[in-house]
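Worked example (supplementary).
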Amino acid sequence: MHTQPIENSQPLMERAKLSQFYQTHKYRFAVFSRFLAAILGGYVFTAVFTSLLSIILPLKKSDAVLLSISLTILVYSCVFIWVFAIKSLKRIWITILLTTTACALCIAILKDWL
Amino acid sequence: MKESFFRSMTWMHTWVGLLVCWLLYLIFFAGTISFFRDEVTLWNQPALHQIATPSNRIQIQREQIVAGYDYLKNTAPDSNRWGVYLPSEREPQLNYAYEKPRPEGKRFGGWQDHYINPVTGQDVDQPRETQGGNFFYRLHFDLHYLDTRTARWIVCLASLFMLVALISGVVIHKRIFKDMFSFRSNKGSRSWLDGHNVSSVLALPFHIMITYTGLITLIFMLFPYPAMTAYDNGVRGLFDDVQPTNVRTKSNPEKASLAPIEHVLDQVYTNWPDADLTQVTIRDPNKASATITVRANTGSLVQDQSPTMLFNGVDGSLIAKTNQEFSASETVFDSMTALHTGRLANPLLRWLYFLCGIAGCVMIASGCIMWAKRIRERMKKQQTASFGLKLVEGLNLATLMGLPLATCAFFIANRLLPITTAERADKEILAFFLAWLAVALFALFKRGKRQWIQLAWLNCAACFSVPLINAITTEGNLISYLINGQWALFSFDLICLVCAALFIVQVKKLRTATSKTAPVKRSSRSPKKQLEEQKA
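After joint prediction of all chains, the assembly is encoded as:
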């Protein structure tokens, strides 16, 4: 009466296991993802952002580049800290991806790469 | 990521700091010694100890260059590169060097040095082969055994973590001013926290400056992207733009006679009448593509790029000259490197750099000890230590007590290894790492308070033996250095003795702490202090 069809229970158990695995390690995943966002996301964002800066600053070319380069570390560390200050992981990833893409797009337009 | 900003930052400070603290300790330790790089190198080369600095050092530079030019012309007409390295305030010897023939497939054959006493004009015996202070300098960003590029990326990541930890450390520090003056001793992890705060806050501007500028020195590896975006040929394009003397002429093997050096020097001294020159290098001498580069000292300017002139080596005409009028951006960028290397520092400022470096080591060491101590204090009576705690305690003991011992081993090896040993410089470095490995293995088995005491005694003996062995194996000793006013050597020996004394203080502290607190194993206040001092 209450027996479940056998072919159904197998995948269900698998899924339960997976979700249990996720639940027990949820915190670890979140921490890992956050470090990834801070280190890798921060790096890519900084690279693209300062590259954009180096071509839009109204200075002599070498001066613009040197100034952007001097600022890279400041930008990187601010992003790093921001990643740990924001509560929602989803928001962090979306913000990083959007801003990075936007900056990259600006560079592409300015440099006529499109 | 936690409920409040404050708690998020505390969490991040703890974990970001703990992840890289031992590596940072190595970087700070070796970096602090590197502030005295030339002095350490001098100590490691007793053959140069007797050379005094002539009072008319700058006036006789012209004669020295001409003499060196003649010497190299006669000795190594076919070499690819010559160099005349003039004595400075920190390096007493005059050096006429040329590049040895290049082995198949190598881009550089190594220098053949020829040292001269600038006062007497006589040749100096070839000093023993050693890396000296250069070893510590390279160690603090190349980590020696690793591939250079990989090592530098690791060091950069660790430095970034350091910077982030510093910023978050300020954020979580509610009573930053008050804590600057509070130290509560013998209160378990509370004392460690106070020590951590005091060493961080007192030298905070230095810590932030040195970490930021350290990253800037490797910035073209870390972030070449702005230059790549703005210039078609990337970083090279930027360099060519900013440093006109950076031009590289293609090698042309055709024979051509060299321009008379007098002609070149006339132009140098017309432009810079009071110049304190540091070196004259000649690329492709006696060939059609010959160039002569003359560099001057930046003195105490906050500037890294030394004033340079580049001459055509065949007709002696000026090709390029560094621009001494920096724009704002150039000044910002260049001064950051200058601040990091501290070459601008006069002796007093150099000592301040050194002391701040030690404060950095104390900060890092107290941070990692505090972590272990807090976990221990929270543990219940019968609870056994987790793997993580054991790992941290082991790394603490191995790094904090191992590095000073390794440093002593390096200096002792310098004095005791026979002068004729093959690859002598490498063997000194091997002694450094073997000593460290021995401490690490020791820490693998036991990490208790007793082990801290034993290693403190060992370090004390090692520190004491460095000046002792120096006195036995060389002509000078602490007293003769004092009488002759050889301050670099005197300070070196004195610092070793100070470290030895500090290790005795550490032993005492550890002992009293044992009797007062529960039989929990851990160290007391001084280990880090001593370690750091070691570095001179």
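Two points are worth noting when inspecting this output. Residues 5-45+135-217+341-533 of chain B form one domain. Residues 515-536 of chain B have pLDDT under 50 and may be disordered.
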